[in-house]
């Protein structure tokens, strides 16, 4: 059965509107977590009815953003799994790959307790946490990372540092493509600064093609 003329462009427009609304929400919620759906509709250049057609309420919009973030984190984690690279390079690769995701969805941190709930945020971050802990355990066994802290505790500390740096990006105090954060992460894990810079530079060059 053939599709009615005009249905495909209509669906394409709907997908485009949805994507634009989500992109606008990421930006505007980062500036103001209390922005209203009406304000988001205006910023996205759509009428209120269009926004509510995709997202009937604030909870539905935030849920869609959370799903996007979860998918992006899963994709970044999966891309680095199964490799045999040294732990310092694996951690640099992981940090470099995850930083853009964290930068894009950092507004979820401000909404975690009030809107999403900490359990939901923990579920989103779980694949990344598992991967980092595995890298740190490998690096400690290989003598690459320090052993002053158990791997799970060191992982929690590195995560807290990354969250703090994302907050600094949010305030405009820090601008980074992931390079400085990756170097800082390796140094905090026990890699000498010069070695950390070399590893991150190699990872960044490979990522850029």
Brief synopsis:
The chain is mainly alpha-helical. The chain has ten helices and no strands.
Tell me what you see in this structure.
By secondary structure, the chain is an all-alpha fold. It contains 10 helices and no strands. The chain has helices at 7-31, 37-44, 48-54, 58-80, 87-104, 107-116, 118-141, 151-171, 179-189, 193-207. Helix 2 crosses helix 3 (48-54).
Outline the biggest β-sheet.
none
Shape: elongated
Strand content: under 5%
The total count of helices amounts to 10
Mean pLDDT: 87
> Which class do the helix and strand fractions yield?
mainly alpha
DSSP summary, beta strand count: 0
Approximate helicity band: over 70%
User: What's the gyration radius in Å?
Assistant: 20 Å
- Please mark out the parts with pLDDT under 50 across 5 or more consecutive residues, or reply none: none
The H/E string reads HHHHHHHHHH
How far apart the termini lie comes to 45 Å
What's the helix and strand layout?
Blueprint: H1 7-31, H2 37-44, H3 48-54, H4 58-80, H5 87-104, H6 107-116, H7 118-141, H8 151-171, H9 179-189, H10 193-207
Helix pairs in contact: 1-2, 2-3, 4-5, 4-7, 5-7, 5-9, 5-10, 6-7, 7-8, 8-9, 9-10
